[in-house]
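Pasting as-is:
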Amino acid sequence: MTDTLRVLTVRQPWAGAIVHLGKDVENRPQRWAYRGPVLIHAALYNPMYIPDHTSVCRIAFPGAEYWSFDFCQERGQIIAITEIVDCVDHTDGHGWTIPWMQGDSHYLVSPWYIEGQFGYVLRNTQPITPTLYTGGLGLRRFRHELSSDVGLATQIYQWADANDYYLAEDYGDNTVHWTRKDSEARP
């Protein structure tokens, strides 16, 4: 299977939580068929003012009041690469088989999952040097001329190699295509 690398814009503090706090689920109201590598873009604009960032995580993570939320200053930038490996919701019927642990608490699902939403399961998240990028709503194709941004290209290709992906640029439309190394097709 070959597909195009995608970018997902996420508002702060959630984008930073994916990178710095181990947030392994991104909740959305709609289901997407896409599975594979995705760049996390921290939204430039955030209409929601959260005066106390610790309230975001306090319920799921006791002790959150001691965390630093300096990462919430990253806005309008690609800040990580990760992989969407699954989408779950409470109506799937199969649930999750991997228990999450936080202190003495055991969860059948990630504590980041919001009931009633589609939870996109993220794995192999790696922070990258923040890179300015124009975001947008939803999950979209990543359009960028990587050859003009060697630092970003290097980090994306290193992540892909470590996580068994082949990548190839399409200079005609400035997209990056990927396929799994265990697949017979190569981009």
